[in-house]
Design a protein that fits this description.
This protein has about 200 residues and is mainly alpha-helical. The chain contains 9 helices and 2 strands. The longest helix is centred in the middle third of the chain and has 22 residues.
Length: about 200
């Protein structure tokens, strides 16, 4: 899936080098759990914030789209969507923190408009490894087997790598921040990993 294209069918597009979370989820679910596509189709009618609330069980309805909490917990869709949404939000927050306090408020208002879809920028190898660990941990936490968790994590990382390929060099040159550790993870990814292979050294 090419970054910056409207593969979601809802008229939204991602910025250059960025992939829409909802498109990444659709691609992963189509490969891993096609039986969940009807659920995903129903969720995609809502904005990202509403989807996240429902998948976390914080919406007005206890049983989103007719699925009970126990059934949703063991599905692939919530694992992938919630992790990628968290990654996208954290990357945006980290980028905003680097712009300075005077611009933060204005940028937050601009980037967090209700209709704005969550995107994931191109990630370095170290960041992809962090995402893989997050997906695996979330899968196991939701009751999926360790083997299934590995398959899901590998598929998500593969999708992210493919989505980030067109803008990979620019992302490394800009030195994107490490993906912060998710809730419940004791490790800290603040190791300041350099851009891999030094492919973008000297680029401006």
């Amino acid at each position: 899936m090419a970054a910056g294209t409207d593969a979601s069918g809802d008229g939204t597009t991602a910025g250059p080098g960025h992939a829409l979370v909802r498109d990444l989820v659709h691609a992963a679910v189509s490969e891993l759990a096609p039986e969940e596509l009807p659920l995903l189709a129903g969720l995609r009618r809502f904005d990202d914030a509403t989807v996240v609330r429902r998948l976390r069980g914080r919406g007005r309805q206890r049983e989103p789209l007719g699925f009970g909490a126990g059934e949703v917990a063991v599905l692939v869709t919530p694992v992938v969507w919630l992790v990628l949404d968290e990654v996208g939000q954290r990357m945006v927050n980290a980028a905003l923190d680097r712009t300075g306090a005077r611009l933060t408020g204005a940028l937050r208002r601009l980037l967090r408009r209700p209709a704005a879809p969550v995107t994931v920028p191109p990630l370095t190898r170290e960041q992809l490894a962090e995402v893989r660990a997050l997906v695996r941990a979330a899968s196991v936490q939701r009751g999926l087997s360790a083997g299934r968790a590995e398959v899901i994590a590998d598929a998500v990382v593969a999708r992210l790598a493919l989505a980030g390929t067109p803008g990979e060099e620019g992302a490394e040159a800009a030195g994107p921040p490490a993906v912060p550790a998710g809730p419940g993870r004791g490790g800290s990814p603040e190791d300041g990993a350099p851009a891999p292979d030094g492919a973008s050294a000297g680029q401006g």
